[in-house]
Records
---
Amino acid sequence: MRKKARKDFRLHLLVCAGTGCAANGSFIIKDALEKEIVKQGLEDEIAVITTDCQGFCERGPIVIVQPDGIFYHRIKKEDVPHLVEEHLFKGRPVKSMMFVPSPEEPAIPRLMDIGFFKHQRLIVLRHRGRLDPENIEEYIGFEGYSSLEKALTRMTPPEIIKEIKASGLRGRGGAGFPTGVKWELCRTSPGKKKYIVCNGDEGDPGAFMDRSVLESDPHTVIEGMLIGARAIGAHKGYIYVRSEYPLAVKKLLIALRQAEEYGLLGENILGTNFSFTIDVVQGAGAFVCGEETALLASIEGKVGRPRPRPPYPAEKGLWGRPTNINNVETWANVPVIIARGALWFSSIGTKRSKGTKIFSLVGKINNTGLVEVPMGITLGQIIYDIGGGIPDGKEFKAVQTGGPSGGCIPRELLDLPIDYEGLSKAGSMMGSGGMIVMDEDTCMVDVARYFLNFTQEESCGKCPSCRLGTKQMVHILNRICEGTGGEHDIAFLEEVGRSVKLASLCGLGQTASNPVLTTIKYFREEYLAHIREKRCPALVCKSLISYIIDPQTCSGCTVCAKNCPSAAISGEAKKIHTIDQTKCTKCGICLSVCPPKFKAVKKTSPAVQ
Amino acid sequence: MSKIEKILKDHHYKRSRIIQILQHVQAEYKYLPKDILESVSQKLKMPLSTIYSIATFYAAFSLTPRGKHLCTVCMGTACHVRGAPDVLARIEEKLGVETGGTTDDKQFTLETVNCLGACALAPIVVIDGTYHGQTTVNKVGGLLDKYHEKKGT
C-alpha cells in the first residue's frame, strides 16, 4: 500500500533515521523539511520518508532525494528553506550541501558516484535505506519471506543444508566455521527438542554491523532463522541482544509481532506442518557472553561463564539439548543464498572465504560508517577508496581488526586481501568486523594497553591464565606507558602473552594477547622509545608528555589561561604565557582552545622536567 | 499487587528469567535495592547468593543508588583513539567523582560503557539517554552545566 502511495509523488526525500543520524538531529531536519514543503505548497508533490541506517554515519543528518539519488549531508536546520526552494521548487540541486571528497575536487551530486557507496557490494545490507523496518509489508514487497516459502515447500531439510554448505558461507561472528557443517552437526545430533540461537551480543568495541542489521532489517534475520530451524528441526529460537542496543530490541519485537500476525511465526507456518517461535533475550553488559557457551548460560539465567567444549552446543546446548548458534550477519545471509543459489553466492569472494563481509570503518578515517565489501578486497581499497583516507592530512599508521581478540595491521600490509585466512596470517582475525583506523597520533603501546584493560575487566575469572595473565600484562603495559618499564618487559610480555593464549579455555583468553603480540611485532620501535628514551612518539601517554607554549607564536591572547582548570598558566594580556609543569594536569584544554592562527600550545615528549 | 509481584508475574516466576527480572527491577528503581533482592530470592526460592553473583557479574547492574542524571562515557576503541580518556578525565574532575561514583548532591552518576556502536559520533557522552557526539575536553564542561541548570527548573 505504501509503495503505491509513493508513486503519486514527484519526489521523495529519504531522511536517514539510524542511530548516528538521529543523534545528529535528523528528526529536527525532517520536521523542518515537512514544514517548509507545506509553506511552499509542495505537500502533494513531495513526500518525506524516514529510512533505516544508510551507513554513512559520519555525514549525518543525511537526506537523499529520489528518484535522482541526490545525496545531501550534514544538513542544518537553517539550510532547509534554501534546499526546499532551490532544489524542490526550482529544480536546482544545491551544490553547497553535497559531498566533497577533498577541497580540490568538485561536489558529487549522486549517491552512487560517491566512493563510499560505489565500491560496496550489498548482500546483507541489500535493503539499505530502502525499507521501513517497522512495516513487514515493505520487506515482503522486496520479495521477503519468499526464500522461506521456497525452503518450506520446495526443499527438504537436507537440501537446504546442502545448499548452505555449497555456498561456502562461514560464521560472520569471527571464527569462520562453515555454517552448513554446523547445521548438519545439529541436525544429526540425537534428540527431539532442538534450539537455534541468534548471537546479537556484539561486544567488540568499534563493531556495530549487527546493531544496524537488527535495527534496519530485522525480518531478514528472522527469515534466516526460520530457514535454519526448518533445516535443523528446531521449533524454538532465541535472539540474544546486548543491553546497549535498546533500539534494536524495540525493532525486533515489532518485527516478531508482525511476523506472528502474518502467520510466519507460530503454528503451521504457511500451511505446512512446520512450527517455530522466537524469543528475544537481552544481555546485561558482559562481553564474554558473546562466547557461545557463555551466551547459552546467560539465556538459562546463569552467570555467563564459558564451559569446556566438547560437548559442542550442537550436541549439548541450551538446557542440554542440541543447539545451533549463528551470529546476526550469518543469519542475514541465509535468505539471499536460498533465493539466488549457492553457485551465485560462491562466485563472490576468495577461494576459502565466500560472499561479502560488513565492516565498521571507524577511528581516524574520513568516511566513518558501515561498509559491505566482497571478501578479498584489500585493506588499502577499504581505507582509501571507500574510507576516503585519513583526516587532516595525517599519516596512516595501522588498522585494528577483530576487536580485543584481533591485532594491529601496519601500513606495509595495505595490499593484504581481506579474508579469514589473510587476517589470521597477519596475526589478527576477522572478528565481527570492526576496523579501527589509527594515524600518527595513535600510540600503539597505549592501544595495546587499552585492549588488555578491556579483556582484563571482561575476563570471567574462571581460568587463572586469563584472569591473572591479562592483569600482569596490564601492569607491564602501564609501566611502559608511564616510562618506568625496562627492556626485559617486552620479552616478558611476549612470554606471558603466549602462555595466556595456550592455557585459556575460551576465545576471550585464547586471543587476549593478540593486540600486545601484534603491536610488539610491527611497532617494536614504539615500545623501545617509551622504554629507552621515555618518549611517546605519538604524544599520547600522559606521563611522558608535557604541554608547552611556544614563545615564538604566543600572542598573549589569554584564552588558555582563562580556560585552564588548574590555574597552571600565567601571563599578562599581550605577553607570552607559560605553563607551570608542577600544576599542569595535562588535560589538554589549553591546546584545544588556543586559536588556530597562533597554534602556540604544543605537546612535547619526553616530558619537561 | 506490589511492583515486585507484577514484575515476577510478567516473567511467570521463572528462575531462568532472573536476568530479565533484575533488569526490570533496575528499570523501576534505577538500581537493585537490597530488600527487593531479598524479596525476589524468597519468592523465586532462589538463594540470595546466586542472585548476588548474577547482579555483580553483569556490568549493567548497580547495587548502589544512582544519581538523578546518568552520565555514560563510551570507552569503545573508536572513542578511545579520538580522545575519550581525556573527556572522561575532564568529567571526573568536573563532577568530583570517579567512574562508577555518584556526586554528593546525588545529581550525577558517572559510568562508562564498552561501546555504543555509534562510532561515527566518537567520542560520545550519553546523558539521560541523549547522545552527545564529537565531544571534546572543553565542550563537556558546558554540557554538564546544562543539566545542572535543569535541576532548578
Note: The longest strand of chain B covers residues 69-74.
---
Amino acid sequence: MTPFTRLTGIAAPLPVANVDTDMLLPARFLKTVSRKGLGAALFRAQRFDANDVERPDFPLNRRPWRHAEILVALDNFGCGSSREHAPWALRDFGIRCIIAPSFADIFYGNCFKNGMLPVVLGAAQVEVLMADAEQPETAIMTVDLEQRTITRTQGETIGFSIDPQRRQRLLDGVDDIAQSLAFEEKIAAHERGWRIAAPWIRGLAADFAKTETSG
Amino acid sequence: MNEPRTLYEKVWDSHQVVDLGNGECLLHVDRHLLYEVTSPQAFDGLREAGRRVRRPELTLAVADHNVPTQDRAGGLSAIADPESRLQVATLERNCAEFDIPYVPLTSPRQGIVHIIGPELGLTLPGTVIVCGDSHTSTHGAFGALAFGIGTSEAEHVLATQTLVQKRSRTMLVRVDGALGVGVTAKDIVLHVIGAIGTGGATGHVIEYAGDAIRALDMAGRMTICNMAIEAGARAGMIAPDETTFAWLAGLPFAPKGTEWDEAVAQWRTLPSDLDAAYDRVVEIDAASIEPMVTWGTSPEAVTTIGGHAPDPAREADPRQRAQVERMLAYMDIAPGAALAGLPIDIVFIGSCTNARIEDLRAAAAVARDRQVAPGVRALVVPGSGQVKAQGEAEGLDSVFRSAGFEWRDAGCSMCLGLNPDRLQPGQRCASTSNRNFEGRQGPGGRTHLMSPAMAAAAAVTGRLTDVRALAR
Ligand code: SF4
C-alpha cells in the first residue's frame, strides 16, 4: 500500500453534511471488476446533468479544484452502505485526504484500508479550512500525518489527533494483510492444531464440481 | 470451573489465532465463499502485492447475482449483458489463476452461494464461514459463525485465511410455544424484525433458541438466520441438534464413518452452557405470531396480513412521520389501508431466504390445482440446481407449471436488480426474498416480503391474501 506521510495539495470545499455512499458512487456502477476508473463516476449525479454534461457549478468541475487531493466536508461523511466502491471512487479521482467534523464508521475504516487519511476536526476548524478551500489563493494546504498537523497557505498550523496504530500503519504503508502475515507462525500453528481438533474440515479440489457426483 | 459460554463464544474461542489488543483478534476462517460482484478487486489487490491465496482449497466460488435464470446452456455466452458477463468471466479467470474451486454456470451444482454451501456439506457446526455478502448469516443455522465481509477483508482472507475482528455482543432471541397453522419461519423472523427494528441487533450476534426454533427444520432455521442481518445483527446462530445432524449425514463433504461420530460428539459440546450470559434477551411467544407481510421499504415496516399500513398523521415525531409518508408514497399505499386485498403484479418465489426444497413444497401445496390469477406473472426460482432437480423428481415443476407459474434456473434472480429478472417501475411484487428497499428488485419496483405459502396465495388470488383462508 502507498504510505501516507505528508500531502501538499489543493483542497476542494464540499459544504454538505451526510454525504452518502450512493452520492459518492451510484449503485449502477457496482457492475465493475476494477477499483480503478470509478473516479469518473464519483458524485455522478452532482457532477453531471442528465445528459452527462458537467455541471459548471460543482466544485470538482472547476479550476483549481479539478485537481483536488483533499476534500473538506461536513458531518457524517460517507454514511450508507458498506461498499468499498465509495472510497475507491474518491481515490481514483485523486483525493487522498478528507477533512470533516465526523465520518460514518465503516467508511472511516475503509479509508485506512485504501491508503487514505480521514481527518476529524472540530466544526469551527473545519469552517476555517472550508473558507480557505473556497478561495483559489488559499486552497493549497499541507496535511502532515507525521506531525499530525494541517498547515494553511499562510503558514498557520492546526493539529489533529488520530489513533496511533492506524497512523503508524498509514505512515509505513503497511496494510492489514501485511500486519497479519507477520503472524505467519501463529497462523500455521493454529491451522495444525485445528486440523487435529476438526480433521473433517477438508479442502476441495479446484475441479471438484466436475468430478463430484450429486450426493 | 470454566466460565459458562455461549455458542458464539465457543466458536470464536476455538478460532482465535492472536489477540491483537483493543478487543481485536485474528480469527481463523474455515470456509471462504466468493461470487462475482464483490471479489474482482480483492484478486486485483493480491496481484498488485504479488500475494498468493493461502488456502484455495478452503475457498469456493460460484456466480449467482448476475446470472440469467433461463436459456443458459451456453454458459458464459448466455449472459447477454456485457458488464454482467465480464464480472462472471473475471471470476472464472481469477479462480483458474489462483486454483480456487469453482462451480460453473453449467454445473448441476450451481446455485445461490448460501444455498450450495450447506447442500454440499461445507457448512458444518462450529466452523467460521465468511463471504463478501451480508446474507452469509444464513449458514449460522448449523451452529457456524458466519458473517458478511467487505472486499478488503475478502482480500485479507484470501491472503491469510484469517480476519481481524472485534468480538460482538450477544443477543438471545427465545421463541417458545407452538406456531399456529399457516405460520412459518419467515413469519417468525419478520415478527422479530418488526419487534426489535432494523437496528435492533446492531453490534450483536443473535442466537435463536426456544422450542419453536427447535421444532423448525433446517430450511426454516436457515431462513431466520438469513434475515438476522435485517435486524442489524452481525450474524445469526442456532445450536446444532439432532435435526442438524440428520440433515448433514451423507452430504458430499460432511464427515463419514468414524469421523462422523467424532464430529457429532464434538458438535454436541457447542450449544450454549446453561448459565451463559447474553448482553440482551428478547422473548417471543410463538402462538402470538401470524402470517406477516411488509408494507414499506424497510423490513421493519411489517405487520400481520390482517393488519393495516400506518397512518402518518398519528406519528408524533416529525422525522418518523416523514419517513412513513415517504414509504407509503413509494409503495403507493393509502395511509391506514388494509394490506389484505392489495392487487399484485408479480410473484417471486426464490432467493437465499426461501428457495430451498421445503419452501417450494410449501408454495406448491397452495398452488396445486389452482391457477395463477389473470394478469399476474409468477416466478419460481429454485435456489440451486440441486433444489431444481429435487423439485422435478417430486413433480413440483408440473404442479407449478400447470398452475401457470414459470419454473426457472437457479440464481439470485429477482431478489435484486443485477440480472434480467427485475420489476418494472410501479410493479407490485409478493416476494419471498429479504429486502424491500426502494429499487431493490428493479428501479421503482414495490416489494412486499412474505413466506413462500403466502406468496403462492398471492399468486392464485392476485392479491395479498391470508394463506389460511385457502386451507383445504
Ligand atoms: S438471493 Fe438475494 S440476498 Fe441472497 S445472495 Fe442473492 S442477491 Fe443476496
Note: Residues B 64-65, 112, 114, 133, 135, 351-352, 412, 415-416, 433-434 surround iron/sulfur cluster (CB under 6 Å).
